């Protein structure tokens, strides 16, 4: 098992802090165009981009999101646990399942936040101090419509030269199973705000969300624990 706090302390001196807005970002175009606002009921988005702690923390502060769960996606196995996924020997990626109300926030806006502040889409099989295919940048569409929106948006970002380096984000061609991570991983950034790894890598992402997307920012984050009480 990778001990993230230990990993952080070992490499902190050698690493230059990365802004939660990807260091290679120049401009971020408007959110991807999609028709999800016409949908009824809740929708889900599954996104991978490094350690799930930070991505979960970002979406927990987004208006219209009813739940954000850390977990694993993209693997062929019928189950996933942190011990095996963190070894890098499985095909799973750490991911977050974002449940949202499309009448309050669109899938396109979810993706805009993903590319703008949740992670750096130009880093291949890594994010900050975390390296390996389990930390890859990948979108797991939950429908054909989501797949089209995601692919079109990546093309839009490339055409706009929004990043100085190439976008390496993959999109799954078929719906991948999602497995919720262990309980101690849920709400991790909220429960451990002063941990060095969280303070250095994830807190800036949440701060940039507030600065860059004040229209969807909410002070009180939705937690997995609270979401479970309402379901």
Quick structural summary:
The chain is α+β, with helices and mostly antiparallel strands. Helices cover 33% and strands 16% of the residues.
Could you outline the blueprint of secondary structure elements for this entry?
Layout: H1 4-11, E1 43-49, H2 52-59, E2 65-73, H3 82-85, E3 93-100, H4 107-118, E4 126-127, E5 130-131, E6 137-140, H5 144-159, E7 170-171, E8 178-180, H6 188-191, H7 196-212, H8 224-230
Helix pairs in contact: 2-4, 2-7
Characterise the protein shown here.
This protein is of the alpha+beta class and 231 residues long. It has a single domain (23-226), classed as Peptide methionine sulphoxide reductase MsrA (Peptide Methionine Sulfoxide Reductase, Chain A, 2-Layer Sandwich). It contains eight helices and eight strands; from the N terminus they run H-E-H-E-H-E-H-E-E-E-H-E-E-H-H-H. The strands form two sheets. A six-stranded mixed sheet has the order 7-6-1-3-2-8, with helices on one face. The chain has a two-stranded antiparallel sheet with strand order 4-5. Helix 2 (52-59) packs across helix 4. The longest helix is centred in the C-terminal third of the chain and has 17 residues, at 196-212. The chain is globular, with a radius of gyration of 16 Å. The protein starts with a helix and ends with a helix. Mean pLDDT is 87; it is low at 5-26.
Order of helices and strands: HEHEHEHEEEHEEHHH
Q: What is the molecular shape? A: globular
Order of strands, main sheet, comes to: 7-6-1-3-2-8
As an assembly, this protein is single chain
Radius of gyration: 16 Å
Largest sheet: 6 strands, mixed
What fraction, in percent, of the residue positions are helical?
A: 25-40%
Indicate the structural class: alpha+beta
| CATH T-level topology | Peptide Methionine Sulfoxide Reductase, Chain A
CATH architecture, by name, is 2-Layer Sandwich
Strand content range: 15-25%
Total of DSSP H or I helical runs spanning 4+ residues: 8
Query: What's the end-to-end separation, in Å?
Result: 32 Å
Q: Give the CATH superfamily.
A: Peptide methionine sulphoxide reductase MsrA
Low-confidence stretches: 5-26
Domains counted in the coordinates: how many? 1
Mean pLDDT: 87
**Number of DSSP-assigned strands:** 8
């Amino acid at each position: 098992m990778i001990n993230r706090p230990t990993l952080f302390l070992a490499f902190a001196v050698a690493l230059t802090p990365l802004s939660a807005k990807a260091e290679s970002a120049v401009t971020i175009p408007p959110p991807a165009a999609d028709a999800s606002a016409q949908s009824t009921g809740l929708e889900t988005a599954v996104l991978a981009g490094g350690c799930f702690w930070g991505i979960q923390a970002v979406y927990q502060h987004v208006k219209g999101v009813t739940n954000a769960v850390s977990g694993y996606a993209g693997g062929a196995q019928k189950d996933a646990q942190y011990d095996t996924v963190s070894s890098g020997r499985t095909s799973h990626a750490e991911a977050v399942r974002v449940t949202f109300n499309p009448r309050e926030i669109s899938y396109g806006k979810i993706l805009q936040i993903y590319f703008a502040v949740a992670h750096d889409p130009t880093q291949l099989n890594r994010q900050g101090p975390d390296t390996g295919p389990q930390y890859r940048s990948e979108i797991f569409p939950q429908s054909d419509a989501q797949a089209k929106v995601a692919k079109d948006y990546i093309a839009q970002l490339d055409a706009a030269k929004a990043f100085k380096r190439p976008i390496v984000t993959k999109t799954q061609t078929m719906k991948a199973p999602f497995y919720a991570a262990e309980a101690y991983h849920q709400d991790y950034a909220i429960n451990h705000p002063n941990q060095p790894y969280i303070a250095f890598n994830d807190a800036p992402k949440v701060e940039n969300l507030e600065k860059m997307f004040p229209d969807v920012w909410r002070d009180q984050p939705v937690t997995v624990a609270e979401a479970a009480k309402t379901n």
